[in-house]
Write a structure and sequence with these properties.
single chain, mainly beta, 5-stranded mixed β-sheet, 4 helices, globular
């Protein structure tokens, strides 16, 4: 399956020799690159623009002659302005979720071709072969203009000649006007997921079969054990609470992912000698189909598992932190492993430096996986891993500070959104599809324990703010446009939120203090 990418083409530049240049010598209209193959357009506004895919690039250029190479540092100093758009008059376009076919006008304006006879008159009898799909995620780079009601309303050659720059406006993209909802009046459908008188810990939410899986651990059976509950897309409960672990050990840190047929649950189990990660596989109605050790059984500590399903390559990516090859039982590395049908595939990929408590997180993107983690110096790091468990490019520093902790990651299939807490404040960073930061991190607000999810149009960020669970929204190009939305809206203390998206529904769960125990609450919102 072909993924969206930043023009990583030209046979990986094996046959293309780009002249060396300095950023100071660049002129508007130049094509530029650094050590990686990605090519950018250097615009009149002094910013670089991303080609979302090869097809967009090919409407403007034939081959890669004249691409100028600058240093990685110089490239990083040039701010990304947005995405390039199709050149006017070259192709017809559409999106998969809309049957309308559009002609492209200057500045990324799309005009609906109302009839087939008009399309034939403008582009010939083979007009249908000139229609290309714009991925839904990039449709908002364009503006919908007036319809083409007759062949005289549009002339492809004239439109092409008038369109001289592959950006929609030649300036920094502006955000659409979004109606602001008062932070104190925001309606979510809130339900109790579990109100038993136990101390619930580590809630996690994941998409499952039209709804969600809420997992956590509590001590109802005399020791910490992992449990889960199915939640539908209206936050209603389905079936009963399922007990996952039953060992005479401490079990916690559960995560899960669904591949369309089976639910895979990973969690930590402790013993005297080691801490291991167990796997359980269940069918869609909850029957256990396999149960067993996932990580190595050698003496050591394996902690903080996370899992992501990649439907493009029918493979799970799993990460965890492990000390099994370290000489210091308090230090370890992040490990990446592919998994198919509940079985480990290939060798371990060890990532980053030895550190304490890395808290790795993983997300799928195209045919790759993005991984973030926290190193001992409290740096937030990122790496891209391909379907063969090999690194794509190099490790990237997302953020460097003495107190940055617990990163979370989401993918828009063209960018990555990363959140973390730093000294009582929540931050968001937008990364391109190679993990390079796009602009500076943005402050979400005062809070801790953030989580992030991509809805198909925007990033949602949940976090603990005071005694409430709050929400923020971030646009696809990294602008925070709504913050401080109070989801929990309760006088009781609420903490530890977890987000997930399934289709058109966003779900969130969190803990609410109740006397000497706490409740597990869940809420859903239909994406607007």
């Amino acid at each position: 399956m072909k993924k969206i990418f930043l023009i990583i083409f030209c046979l990986s530049f094996v046959f293309c020799v780009a002249p060396m240049a300095r950023a100071a010598d660049l002129e508007a209209g130049d094509l530029i690159k650094a050590s990686l193959p990605a090519v950018y357009y250097y615009s009149t506004d002094g910013r670089r623009y991303v080609f979302p895919n090869e097809k967009t690039y090919n409407t403007w250029y034939e081959g890669f002659a004249g691409v100028k190479t600058i240093t990685d540092a110089e490239l990083a100093s040039i701010q990304i302005g947005g995405n390039a758009v199709y050149r006017a008059g070259v192709k017809l376009v559409k999106i998969q979720t809309d049957p309308k076919v559009y002609a492209v006008a200057k500045d990324g304006v799309l005009r609906w071709v109302k009839t087939e006879s008009i399309a034939v008159a403008l582009y010939g009898a083979d007009w249908a072969q000139k229609v290309e799909d714009i991925p839904d995620a990039f449709f908002t780079n364009y503006t919908v203009g007036s319809d083409i009601a007759s062949a005289g309303d549009y002339e492809p050659a004239t439109e092409k000649a008038s369109d001289t720059e592959p950006v929609s406006t030649g300036i920094t993209p502006t955000e659409p006007v979004v109606p602001q909802e008062p932070a104190t009046v925001y309606s979510w459908n809130i339900k109790e997921v579990d109100n038993d008188t136990y101390l619930h810990k580590m809630p996690e939410l994941s998409a499952f079969n039209g709804g969600f899986i809420a997992s956590w651990n509590d001590d109802r059976h005399g020791q910490s054990e992992v449990l889960y509950q199915k939640v539908n897309n209206t936050a209603g409960l389905e079936g009963v609470i399922q007990r996952v672990s039953g060992n005479l050990t401490t079990s916690d840190s559960a995560v899960s992912a669904y591949d369309g047929n089976f639910l895979y649950i990973l969690w930590e189990d402790s013993s005297i000698y080691k801490r291991i990660i167990n796997l359980q596989k269940r069918d869609s109605i909850g029957n256990i189909t396999s149960d067993g050790l996932f990580t190595s059984s050698t003496i050591g500590t394996a902690r903080y598992p996370d899992i992501a399903w990649n439907g493009a390559i029918n493979t799970f990516g799993v990460v965890w932190w492990d000390t099994k090859t370290s000489g210091d039982s308090a230090r370890g590395k992040v490990i990446f492993k592919r998994m198919e049908n509940g079985l480990k595939v290939g060798d371990d990929l060890r990532i980053g430096e030895e550190t304490t408590d890395a808290y790795p997180q993983i997300v799928s993107s195209g045919e790759d996986f993005g991984v973030v983690w926290q190193e001992e110096t409290k740096k937030i790091k990122f790496v891209l891993v391909d379907k063969n468990s090999a690194l794509v490019g190099t490790e990237k520093e997302v953020y460097t500070t003495s107190v940055a902790v617990r990163p979370k990651i989401a993918s828009s299939e063209g960018t990555f959104g990363v959140v973390w807490a730093d000294n009582g404040e929540v931050y968001f960073a937008l990364l391109d599809n190679q993990g390079t930061a796009i602009g500076a991190p943005q402050s979400i607000g005062v809070g801790t324990d953030p989580d992030v999810a991509w809805t198909g149009e925007k990033f949602y960020v949940s976090y603990t703010s005071g005694i409430d669970i709050s929400l923020a929204k971030v646009s696809k190009i990294g602008n925070v446009f709504e913050t401080g939305i109070n989801i929990s809206n309760s006088s009781a203390e609420s903490t530890s939120s977890s987000l997930a998206v399934n289709g058109s529904v966003v779900g969130v769960i969190w803990l609410e203090k109740s006397d000497n125990s706490n409740k597990l609450l869940g809420a859903v919102e239909t994406i607007k």
